[in-house]
Amino acid sequence: MKRRFLLVNSMIGLAFLAGSCGGEEPVDEVNEIVQDTVFAEDQFAALFEESPEVDYHLPSPLQVASIFKKSGLDYNAGSTNLTDNADNYTDKLKQKLNFGVYSADMAYCVMNDQSNEGRKFLTVITDLSEEIGMEAVFENKDLMDRFDANLEDKDSIEILMIDIHERTEMYLEDNDMQNEAAIHFAGAWTEGMYLGVYDFEKNPGKEGVGAQITEQMSILNNIIKGLKDPKNDGTDLGWLILDMEEIQAAFDEFDSVIAFEADENASELELTDEEYSSLGELVKALREKIIAV
After folding, report:
1. Which domain holds residue 75?
2. d(Cα 20, Cα 170) in Å, to the nearest integer?
């Protein structure tokens, strides 16, 4: 038996969202903002070829939330990283990675109408931003005030998340820290993959979630390139890069993937149960390393 996965080219991300302020945008406008942030795969790859210094305009985490929504991902209480773990992340790398993890968790909660849970993650992200030197992104009290004022309005919360990404991206650019975005995004990507794996294992009949998982694989090489930026030299990223390369290599070597890439007329990628299980175990192992205290 095989599970069917639709291989799509839109990009994902989990917790650095991008856009404008405000809380009264209609649903159609919110959806337009989300769509406008989506990169085609070749466009994303091109960003890494524009200059020797590499441009880190990584996909927005709101895209992952949007993909979760369209794939039918259910909210699974207890699947996110424990907020209590945050105080135990004293290593700078762990703090940066889990800034991404918790950002993905916040997007996951908001898109599943769990705004009260999402608020907890916003608090954790704010605290971690101080530890990694990005407190300026969250120093204005307006973010939390806006979140509290719109707890029952998911569209407004989505716009707030877009604003958080815009502030984060601007801060990293202004301080020549774009290379660190790759570290944040590695954590967000891993958490997004884990949430998809978790839900798919609980609900194996959900082909849509499987498509989301496969979709995320389409950008892993670019994340690895970002982590290898010379500006990240001196950061202990060796283990992270190796684990991500192992995930990429395993996926590329699946018989189903090889056959799909060899068939110019193929429109869908099919992974066997064994291949899917193998990929899921690698993702879970990496996620455990990232969130371990």
Report:
1. 2-291
2. 12
